[in-house]
Design a protein that fits this description.
The complex is a heterodimer of chains A (227) and B (253). Chain A has 227 residues and is an all-alpha fold. Chain A is built from eleven helices and no strands. Chain B has two domains: 136 residues, D-Maltodextrin-Binding Protein, domain 2 (3-Layer(aba) Sandwich), CATH 3.40.190.10; 98 residues, D-Maltodextrin-Binding Protein, domain 2 (3-Layer(aba) Sandwich), CATH 3.40.190. In chain B, the strands form three sheets. A five-stranded mixed sheet of chain B has the order 2-1-3-12-4, with helices on both faces. A five-stranded mixed sheet of chain B has the order 7-6-8-5-11. The model of chain B has no long low-confidence stretch (mean pLDDT 89). Classes of the chains: A mainly alpha (227), B alpha/beta (253).
Chain lengths: 227, 253
């Protein structure tokens, strides 16, 4: 059996982290993307830039700031301690926060494009039919934006599975809490356990390929439906 | 004739060294050596005119990179196993390996009263987290686990442990306040012979397997006079004084 128990635990934890991140991020990113798609505020450009920051920043920068800000001396750490949550680094909740920031653009940007593509017209029609704004958002916009929502979910999930730098900085390598597949591969390579590293790495390649293939197929189908 | 050609080669080499005079040596350095190496490299550069280009990292990663053809000429390792392995596998010059420093482990806290000089804090119930380097990867991590085991306190502290990928990261966890204590390298917290920040217990050397750190001349440095000079310099009294001031022991030859 080439896959050891810690490796299986790491795989399970990675999937749990990716699923939780996807769920929370869709809830957070939907209103944000909606606002970005519709607003004419002067804040639009700076907010869009902040959302895109994790695309260009090295993940270690994000991890380093999280470690400092959410440590006992940082403002974030004092805030979480005041709330009775304790300190976030080295916990699953800490990884979750890191993953949400790290994958933010991967959720917001597809949603934003999808909302922009829907345009104002369907909402205006819904309004003349006396649909309340929330009602028309749920029953008109969301179904029309479905391909974008699926794309956001798949990309967020896959991107979180591939997360490494942030976890390395704030994880602490604790089995069942912060030891994920990518840090486990790193550990295997450094410990010269190349066989285990190969198994996990090959699994990652297959997984990522399957996700991107599924996404490409989905995109083709949805373009056909829309077009 | 051979004498003559040898003399000629020597003159050419001397001229080349004179003309190029600042030969470069590319050194891969274990993370725990970061601070002393800086001083040693400065002194070496001043004494010889050669230039040291240092890359910091974990010894295990350097090994993987060297197998992939990384262009380092000298490896200052954190252990003795990987240098020996490089020698066996023909990636390092045979017979040039030696122990340049013996590392010391310290239980360290940022809080000036956090760790008593006898380390009795380990015998109490854990308050806060204890950072160690990953024992699979870093000799300092393995030494930390041996120390906890020897004191019989591993079961009590196991749940408080957080692991860094190197002793450098274990130090960072404590220095950022995220872990209350950490087993780190003495060299990370000591300079000029004393612990400069926080509080610490220097773990007696016999509590764990010796942290012998070996240096090897890698194949890439075979023909580089600066690499040979650097290896020789590590044995000099000046380099040894620096290593001692950062808390390392020196092997008695």
């Amino acid at each position: 059996m080439p896959i050891a128990r810690e490796d299986l635990q790491a795989i399970w934890l990675t999937l749990k982290l990716a699923a939780s991140t996807t769920l929370l991020l869709l809830l957070l990113a939907t209103p944000l993307a909606w606002w970005l798609a519709r607003t004419r505020s002067r804040l639009r450009a700076p907010v869009a830039a902040v959302v895109a920051l994790p695309l260009v920043l090295p993940p270690t920068v994000l991890g380093f700031y999280l470690l400092v800000a959410f440590g006992p001396q940082g403002w974030g750490g004092q805030f979480t301690q005041a709330l009775g949550l304790g300190l976030l680094p080295f916990t699953f909740a800490g990884l979750l926060l890191g993953s949400i920031l790290y994958s933010l653009p991967f959720a917001v940007q597809p949603l934003q494009s999808a909302f922009e593509a829907v345009g104002r017209r369907p909402l205006e029609v819904a309004a003349t039919l006396r649909a309340a704004p929330l009602d028309s958002f749920v029953h008109v916009v969301l179904p029309l934006a479905r391909p974008g929502i699926v794309q956001a979910a798949v990309l967020t999930f896959a991107h979180t599975v591939g997360e490494f730098g942030v976890v390395l900085m704030i994880g602490g390598n604790i089995p069942r809490q912060t030891q994920v597949v990518s840090t486990q591969i790193y550990g295997h390579v450094e410990a010269l356990q190349y066989t285990q590293a190969h198994w996990l790495s090959a699994g990652m390649v297959l997984f990522s390929f399957a996700v991107l293939l599924a996404l490409a197929r989905m995109n083709r189908r949805s373009t056909r439906v829309v077009g | 004739m051979t004498h003559l050609s040898r003399a000629f080669a020597f003159v050419v080499a001397a001229l080349a060294a004179g003309v190029l005079h600042a030969a470069q040596v590319r050194v891969a350095v274990a993370a725990n050596m970061a601070a002393p190496l800086q001083k040693i490299a400065d002194d070496f550069e001043r004494a010889t005119g050669h230039e040291v280009v240092a890359a910091l990292g974990s010894t295990g990663r350097f090994y993987a990179q060297l197998r992939g053809g990384a262009p380092f000429e000298v490896l200052l390792a954190a252990d003795e196993e990987i240098p020996a392995r490089l020698e066996r596998e023909g990636l390092a010059m045979p017979g040039r390996r030696f122990t340049y420093a013996i590392g010391r482990l310290v239980l360290w806290s940022l809080d000036p009263g956090g760790v008593d000089p006898q380390g009795n804090v380990l015998k109490q119930l854990p308050r806060g987290r204890l950072a160690v380097a990953d024992p699979r990867l870093a000799p300092y991590g393995a030494a930390a686990m041996q120390t906890l085991t020897r004191l019989g306190v591993l079961p009590a502290w196991e749940r408080a442990l957080v692991q860094g990928e190197s002793v450098g990261q274990a130090f960072q966890f404590v220095a950022s306040g995220n872990a209350s204590y950490g087993f780190v390298a003495l060299s990370q917290v000591m300079s000029e012979g004393r612990i400069t920040r926080g509080s610490g217990w220097i773990v007696p050397a016999h509590y764990h397997a010796p942290l012998n750190q070996d240096v090897v001349l890698l194949n890439g440095g075979r023909a580089n006079p600066a690499a040979h000079a650097f290896l020789a310099y590590l044995k000099s009294e000046s380099a040894r004084t620096t290593l001692r001031s950062f808390g390392y022991d020196i092997a008695t030859p």
